[in-house]
Amino acid sequence: MAQRPKTRDRIVLESLALFNTQGERNVTTNHIAAHLGMSPGNLYYHFRNKQEIIAELFALYEARVDSFLRLPEGREVTVEDKTFYLESLLAAMWDFRFLHRDLEHLLESDTELAARYRLFAQRCLDHAQAIYRGFVSAGIMLMNAAQVEALTLNSWIIVTSWVRFLCTTRGEGADISQDLLRRGIYQVLALEGGYLAPEVRPAVKELYEKLYVPLDQVVPN
């Protein structure tokens, strides 16, 4: 029989679900407590305020990204690794989409979180550059150092701003589906396409087809 999650873990998981579906700004600690069927006092025993819950969720997101955004150990990267990185990124964006939707507001509201995010961003950029250099060393991508740097930064800008782009083009309260996030990952793959070695392009074609979502579904008329 599965063990019931501890109260603190339940608060974190259910807060994540509420933030993702309703938007962090629309959810208060009272909403979270009511959703869990507990008193606000019981919730405050575990978390003094909503910012502490958000900090806990960011730590989970940070650990999740750190776990996959790194070079494999003891071997060169492969074309299959490209699929792994992009699909892992898509899953993390989906599971913690509220962070991407409300990022600017969250960082403005919490200076400590903003400082943590800056370190996280720098670490992600460093690891992403190392991964792209790994693809170059393996002969999968053809880039010089300046192109690696530019591609890393452009990919980061797309990933971190994609959900906000969807909100501005579809309306602030519009639902964000996995398909819509998938198109954001496709945009990263499209940026990389010009640097792929000719011999690996057939292998990457299937990934293009898997991630592609027509533009008229992303930006409705």
From TrEMBL:
DNA-binding region: 28-47
Keyword Metal-binding: no
MF annotations from Gene Ontology: DNA-binding transcription factor activity; transcription cis-regulatory region binding
Protein name: Putative TetR family transcriptional regulator
Organism: Metapseudomonas resinovorans NBRC 106553
Domain HTH tetR-type span(s) in chain numbering: 5-65
Keyword Amino-acid biosynthesis: no
Record keywords: DNA-binding
Pfam families to which the protein is assigned, alphabetical: TetR, TetR_N
Highest taxon above the source species: Bacteria
